[in-house]
Amino acid sequence: MDKWYKSKGFKHNPLNIQAEFKDILYGYDVLIEELFYRVSSGNIIFIEGDSGKTSLLYKIIENYKGKGKVAYVDCSKITEDLNIKQLIANGKKGLKAKFNGLPKKMILLLDNIDNLSDKNSEMIKYYFDQDNIQSVVMTSNSYKDVMLPDSIRHRIGNRIYKTKNLTEEEISELVLERLRYATFISESQVEKIVHRTHKKGLKVVFTEISAALLLMINAREAKMTDGIVNRLLHMPEDERQAYNI
Q: Alpha carbon of 90 to those of 31, 68, 236: distances in Å?
């Protein structure tokens, strides 16, 4: 499903829902200012929603650019338990970390955190109390579904922020932005696919667009055709499963 992009000059799949892209953020000015305030005030914060979470974290990173205060990790990409102490050390290793000590007032950004072990929960609280951690921002699709110890939920309190649902037009613009406004697929073709799928969530939209592009590559077409789009939208279920759609 994700091999189409290599033939179009992309190093990584731009339609991966968890790709590290600085997506367009529509109508987030107030929330961004609120996040900056909460982070600077020293809080544990949770951001939930279908899209925009990573881009909001990038705004926090940009706000502290060059100050060495922010440690970011995409928890969906690690196979072992988080090493909170190493995150706080922010690259310091061995004797340097031992003799210089851990930095103070670090900001931890834990993206796509499906669960947090009791061990890491205790480590976060410990380093928070020692002033090594100033703030923690966690993200996931759903706050109520994520596995978090009660002690962390208590510290989050009501500081739970939900990203807004994008409109159909905004999703189309996001797809075009991710594709760098490529000439191999038209705006109207993107809009047609988005119109049929946007109510199912951004992940489904990205999957459908990727499937259309894979069909295009398999058909040895240099550009998307309306016929390929129509084939995708009317594809039988068994064929859709073969394409992992």
A: 27, 8, 50
User: pTM for the whole thing?
Assistant: 0.74
The residue written with tokens 């499903």 in the block is 1
Task: Give me the domain span that covers residue 170.
Answer: 4-11+166-242
Assign residue 54 the CATH number of its domain: 3.40.50.300
pLDDT in tens, 34-86: 999 999 999 999 999 988 898 899 999 999 886 778 999 888 887 777 888 88
Using the structure block, give the residue that is written with the tokens 């000015």. 29
Identify the pLDDT of residue 66.
63
Structural domains counted in the chain = 2
Give every residue of the chain whose pLDDT is below 50, as ranges.
93-99
Question: Mutual orientation of helices 168-178 and 187-197 as an angle, nearest 10°?
Answer: 130
Task: Tell me, yes or no, whether 139 and 185 share the same domain.
Answer: no
Query: Which of 162, 196, 212 is the C-terminal boundary of a domain?
Result: 162
pLDDT tens by residue, 142-152: 999 998 888 89
